[in-house]
Design goal:
119 residues; mainly alpha; Arc Repressor Mutant, subunit A; two-stranded antiparallel ribbon; 7 helices; transcription; WH_DNA-bd_sf; DNA-binding
Length: 119
């Protein structure tokens, strides 16, 4: 796994949030876990563009940051479920507002993003 050689800049809240939520699928993982999709296979179905490996890495990072808890049931085959911690639940209103902003500006954002692929 990639290890940083330079310490991150952690001088403000935006830097801190960036360090914790940086990753293409992390916000969606938090949202879907909050919505009740707790098994890795359920999360994979909700985010089919992500590989299982990347989802596992990002779930592990979310767990290390104290946003997600992982529960392993002692059965064969092993059963794993993810849930939000209290700390993780505090992010859901923020994610909701970001999603609402995205919905309200969908057309403009879609145009901006698609222009990158037209070059």
């Amino acid at each position: 796994m990639y290890e940083r050689k330079i310490l991150p800049n952690l001088n403000c809240g935006l830097d801190l949030i960036g360090e914790v939520l940086y990753g293409k699928w992390k916000i969606r993982l938090l949202w879907f876990i909050n919505e009740g999709f707790q098994r890795p296979s359920e999360l994979q179905r909700k985010i089919p563009d992500a590989t299982r490996r990347v989802l596992n890495i990002q779930l592990k990072e979310l767990e290390e940051h104290g946003l997600v808890r992982k529960k392993i049931y002692p059965v064969v085959p092993p059963k794993v479920e993810y849930g939000l911690t209290h700390f993780g639940k505090t992010l859901i209103p923020v994610i909701s507002v970001l999603g609402q902003w995205g919905d309200e500006n969908e057309e403009k954002l879609r145009d901006i993003i698609m222009k990158r692929f037209e070059k």
